[in-house]
């Protein structure tokens, strides 16, 4: 057992009663301090993200730091009302009592996070945990060590370990932490590790939020604006080199539009990510996180080609720089690994359909995805697709943007996740909703107390 993890956990358990009683103003002060520390370390955060993932400062600002500043501001603005006990309706049998939901901090919470947006995916749940009045241990990903390190520095500069602590380490550290009886575990990562986390949590009956992955489809119907679809899918697929949990994983397009869409997709790839003849523009396109994932993606593409797929764009793999040029695959076999596993890289399989129901069937044969994207100008088709499928979130005629609105819950469903994050939904994940009834002086409860003889007529 990692004695440091054990010690910090015990210290946090002891310290939590004091944190539990903090007011909205005290928690807001902590959030402001966190924002200020992020501001002070901003340059170091960008350097770390460039080192870990080759992200440009602009992309890192837009997809990590600005999102987090927005999340902090939103919590600061709304925390008082989130914490306020919520009035609930009365019952006929108890008409004078007050009924309330109190948002009680869960206690000592664990946040385990992945490497792909390594700053944002630690900070967003941490903001919710602080807002909800918890003590928190964070374990960032070992695959983005520079960012994990700067997160540790930010946290260490403003919090005592009894309240918020960052423990760096790999899956062994995570396993040791998961053995502890946390009050809540917030995990962001793969579906397979999500199952391990839930199994470990079950031993202590810790509640869990699981933010997982999956294959998020983009359906483009025959009425869609193909230019817009191509531009948005190229950006959504290739930002962070496809290493985005809600990136469009594959495209389902009406067969009559496939050629035109692919032509437009290539044009937008050229415009946004290349400097000229398939030469990557390093200011807009990063790298694959490590050799393991680079080789995994190369194998996925090679296997798909062996199984009959045609490569329509890309095929350039620079092993030394860990850069894979955007790939488009056509005629992919449905059982090919590229269609059964989450791709998590810049590889886009394009499948065609004749009838919209075929596309819906393909989606429904797979586990429920984290996101679903619909490109259509037909209200009927949009309604039909939304009604016949399920996914964590969805966008119509756009991609990814649902993650950026803290007023919406962000999360998956079944294999793509359990529970949600962001704004009030994140606050709620880190809170216990405690039902409290405050009885009135005028109280008829005793009418149903024994002895029961002669009481039948009150029913
Ligand atoms: P991962 O599941 O391999 O790792 C996530 C965290 O779990 C890391 O901190 C890691 O150290 C730890 N871990 C790894 N193996 C473990 C084990 N056997 N036991 C205990 N802990 C273990 O995920 P990843 O590769 O870092 O991230 C990519 C995955 O995360 C993708 O599937 C992606 O879709 C998903 N993801 C989901 C969201 C979301 O919000 N839903 C966001 C980003 C990434």
From TrEMBL:
<feature type="domain" description="Aldehyde dehydrogenase">
    <location>
        <begin position="7"/>
        <end position="435"/>
    </location>
</feature>
<dbReference type="InterPro" id="IPR016160">
    <property type="entry name" value="Ald_DH_CS_CYS"/>
</dbReference>
<dbReference type="InterPro" id="IPR016161">
    <property type="entry name" value="Ald_DH/histidinol_DH"/>
</dbReference>
<dbReference type="Pfam" id="PF00171">
    <property type="entry name" value="Aldedh"/>
</dbReference>
<comment type="similarity">
    <text>Belongs to the aldehyde dehydrogenase family.</text>
</comment>
<feature type="active site">
    <location>
        <position position="211"/>
    </location>
</feature>
<dbReference type="InterPro" id="IPR029510">
    <property type="entry name" value="Ald_DH_CS_GLU"/>
</dbReference>
<protein>
    <recommendedName>
        <fullName>Aldehyde dehydrogenase</fullName>
    </recommendedName>
</protein>
<keyword id="KW-0560">Oxidoreductase</keyword>
<dbReference type="InterPro" id="IPR012394">
    <property type="entry name" value="Aldehyde_DH_NAD(P)"/>
</dbReference>
<keyword id="KW-0520">NAD</keyword>
<dbReference type="InterPro" id="IPR016163">
    <property type="entry name" value="Ald_DH_C"/>
</dbReference>
<dbReference type="InterPro" id="IPR016162">
    <property type="entry name" value="Ald_DH_N"/>
</dbReference>
<dbReference type="InterPro" id="IPR015590">
    <property type="entry name" value="Aldehyde_DH_dom"/>
</dbReference>
């Amino acid at each position: 057992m990692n004695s440091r993890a054990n010690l910090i956990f015990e210290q946090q358990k002891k310290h939590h009663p004091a944190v539990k009683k903090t007011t909205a103003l005290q928690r807001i002060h902590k959030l402001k301090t966190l924002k200020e520390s992020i501001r002070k370390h901003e340059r170091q955060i960008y350097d770390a993200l460039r080192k870990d993932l080759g992200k440009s400062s602009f992309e890192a600002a837009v997809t990590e730091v600005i999102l987090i500043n927005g999340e902090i501001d939103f919590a600061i603005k709304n925390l008082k009302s989130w914490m306020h006990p919520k009035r609930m309706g009365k019952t006929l049998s108890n008409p004078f009592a007050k009924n309330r939901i109190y948002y009680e901090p869960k206690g000592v919470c664990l946040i385990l996070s992945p490497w792909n947006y390594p700053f944002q995916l630690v900070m967003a749940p941490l903001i919710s945990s602080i807002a909800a009045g918890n003590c928190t241990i964070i374990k960032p990903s070992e695959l983005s060590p520079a960012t994990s390190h700067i997160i540790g520095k930010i946290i260490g500069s403003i919090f005592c370990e009894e309240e918020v602590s960052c423990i760096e380490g790999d899956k062994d550290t995570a396993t040791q932490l998961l053995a502890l009886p946390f009050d809540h575990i917030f995990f962001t990562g793969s579906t397979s590790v999500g199952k391990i986390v839930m199994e470990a949590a079950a031993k202590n009956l810790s509640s869990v939020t699981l933010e997982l992955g999956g294959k998020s489809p983009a359906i483009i119907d025959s009425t869609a604006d193909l230019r817009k679809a191509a531009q948005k899918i190229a950006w959504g697929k290739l930002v962070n080199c496809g290493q985005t949990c809600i990136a469009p994983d594959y495209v389902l397009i009406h067969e009559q539009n496939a050629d035109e869409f692919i032509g437009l997709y290539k044009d937008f790839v050229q415009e946004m990510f290349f400097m000229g003849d398939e030469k990557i523009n390093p200011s807009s396109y990063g790298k694959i996180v490590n050799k393991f994932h680079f080789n995994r993606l190369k194998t996925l593409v090679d296997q798909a080609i062996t199984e009959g797929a045609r490569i329509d764009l890309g095929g350039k793999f620079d092993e030394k720089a860990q850069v894979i040029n955007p790939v488009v695959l056509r005629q992919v076999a449905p059982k090919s690994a590229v269609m059964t596993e989450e791709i998590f890289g810049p590889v886009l399989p394009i499948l065609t359909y004749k009838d919209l129901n075929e596309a819906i069937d393909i989606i429904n044969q797979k586990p429920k995805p984290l996101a679903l994207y619909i490109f259509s100008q037909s209200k009927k088709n949009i309604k039909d697709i939304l009604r016949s499928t399920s996914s964590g979130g969805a966008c119509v005629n756009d991609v990814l943007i649902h993650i950026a609105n803290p007023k919406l819950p962000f999360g998956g469903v079944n294999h793509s996740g359990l529970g949600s994050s962001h704004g009030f939904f994140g606050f709620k994940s880190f809170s216990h909703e405690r039902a409290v009834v405050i009885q009135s002086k005028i109280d008829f409860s005793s009418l149903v107390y024994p002895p029961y003889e002669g009481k039948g007529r009150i029913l």
